[in-house]
Amino acid sequence: MSAGLKASRDGAVLTLTIDRPERRNALDLATYGALAEQIALASADTSVSAVILTGAGEHFTAGNDLRDFQAERGTGDSAGMTFLRALSTADVPVIAAVEGYAIGIGVTLLQHCDFVHIGEGATLRMPFVALGLCPEGASSLLMPRLAGRRAAQWLLQGKAFSATDAHEAGLATSVAPKGEALAAARATAADLAAQPPAALRLTKAMMKRADRQAIQETLDYEAQQFRARLQTDEAQAAFARFFKK
């Protein structure tokens, strides 16, 4: 298991905890790899009825570790894209428990979860444009569908939004009292674990079937544009300002 991820199994429920609290659970290459591997294993294991995704300490995740954006990238999928593909095609239901900060991919990954419980006081933000980048995680397709006009505020302006905003837009299943998002996720997981497992997985597949191709095509297009944006002067200057600050 990666130093940045903890996995624990309780019956039919697998809990994945992003465990880099000193970095507000920012996702680095190793953590992405561990997440992708665990989600793929859970999808292949029909004895798993639910996966809970959460963060250690006070925050869900501050998004991609920006230090990795300054490294040279090869061709093909990045570690983050490998994770997003595993999440977006997972056969097993995924439940997110969000507290504190959910930034960048910490928001876009929620679009691919089947249930999202967010604690009061959480702050969600997608600051791609401010960093000289562009949307990822199929958010250019899915976020306007979910949030309508608010998607322009969240994606173009990078405005922060709350748990209540996310719930009103349909991004969140529920708003939990602060510190209780994981308890809400566990209650959902227990209910899923009580359902007939084959029927549960089939129903999820049927719900995702119509949009699966469009989501994968959007992931491909966004990844191509994102990779190009990383090399621009705009993005590199934004990273330099961030680290200087």
Could you please describe the fold and organization of this structure?
With 245 residues, this protein is α/β, with parallel strands linked by helices. It has a single domain, classed as 2-enoyl-CoA Hydratase, Chain A, domain 1 (Alpha-Beta Complex). It is built from eleven helices and nine strands. The protein has a six-stranded mixed beta sheet, with helices on both faces. Strands 5-7-8 form a three-stranded mixed beta sheet. The chain is globular. 47% of the residues are buried.
Please summarize what this structure is.
The protein has a single domain (5-179), classed as 2-enoyl-CoA Hydratase, Chain A, domain 1. Helices cover 46% and strands 16% of the residues. It contains eleven helices and nine strands.
